[in-house]
Specification:
The chain has about 200 residues and is α/β, with parallel strands linked by helices. It is built from eight helices and five strands; from the N terminus they run H-H-E-H-H-E-H-E-H-E-H-E-H. About 40% of the residues lie in helices and about 10% in strands. Helix 4 crosses helix 8.
Length: about 200
C-alpha cells in the first residue's frame, strides 16, 4: 500500500497540490479532443501476433508527434457512434468484420482520411477468410511496416501534413532535427476563445 511508503505519499500529495494549483491549464491540455484515432480490433488481436506491436508502435509514434490519440472499435465504426476524427489509422488490423470496413468507407465519404499501416490491413474477415476488395483499401494512404517507431513517426508526420493536419513540431537542440521521446501537446491558451 502507498500508505506505508512515506516518500510515495509525499510525492502523491505534491502532485495533487500541483494539479489543484494548475487546474485550468491541466484541464485545457486534458480536454483537447483527439484529431487522430487508432482502429482497435479484438479479432486482429486474436488472429495476428504482429497486431499488438503495430498498435503500440502507432500509438507511441503519434504521441511523440504531439497528437492526442483516440480509439475506435469495429462496433463504433459499424454503428457510426464515434466522434468525427480527421484521420483514422489502421495499425496492422488484418482481421475485421465487413461492417467495420463499411463504416470506414462511410467515414471516408464524409472526409475522414484513413491511413493503413502494415502490409495486411483489412485483408481478412473475423474467420480469417479473404475480404472482398474495398474502397477503403483503394482510397487510403499506405505506410509500410517500419523498422522502428521513429521512422514510423516520420512517415505519419508526412501523411498527416499532406492531409491538412496542421501541427507545431517539437524540435531538438540540433537545428532541424525533430525531437523524439517527448510526450507533448500544443493547446490554445486557457483563456483564448475556442475555434468554431
Amino acid at each position: 500500500s502507498i500508505y506505508i511508503r512515506p516518500a510515495n505519499v509525499y510525492a502523491a500529495s505534491r502532485t495533487m497540490f500541483d494539479l489543484n494549483r494548475l487546474a485550468r491549464q491541466v484541464s485545457t491540455v486534458s480536454s483537447q479532443p483527439p484529431r487522430v484515432a487508432l482502429l482497435y480490433s479484438y479479432t486482429s488481436a486474436y488472429w495476428d501476433d504482429q497486431y499488438p506491436t503495430d498498435m503500440m508502435d502507432a500509438y507511441v509514434a503519434l504521441t511523440f508527434l504531439g497528437e492526442p490519440v483516440g480509439f475506435v472499435t469495429r462496433r463504433q465504426l459499424a454503428a457510426g457512434t464515434f466522434r468525427d476524427y480527421d484521420f483514422i489509422v489502421v495499425p496492422g488490423v488484418s482481421a475485421v468484420r465487413q461492417s467495420a470496413v463499411a463504416g470506414l468507407e462511410a467515414y471516408m465519404k464524409r472526409g475522414t482520411k484513413v491511413i493503413l499501416y502494415g502490409d495486411k490491413c483489412l485483408a481478412k474477415d473475423r474467420y480469417w477468410r479473404n475480404h472482398p476488395h474495398s474502397a477503403v483499401v483503394e482510397g487510403a494512404d499506405r505506410i509500410a511496416r517500419q523498422k522502428n517507431r521513429r521512422r514510423l513517426a516520420a512517415e505519419l508526420n508526412g501523411v498527416l501534413s499532406r492531409g491538412g493536419l496542421s501541427r507545431i513540431a517539437l524540435t531538438d537542440a540540433r537545428p532541424g532535427a525533430p525531437a523524439w521521446g517527448a510526450d507533448y501537446r500544443v493547446v490554445p491558451p486557457h483563456d483564448a476563445p475556442t475555434p468554431p
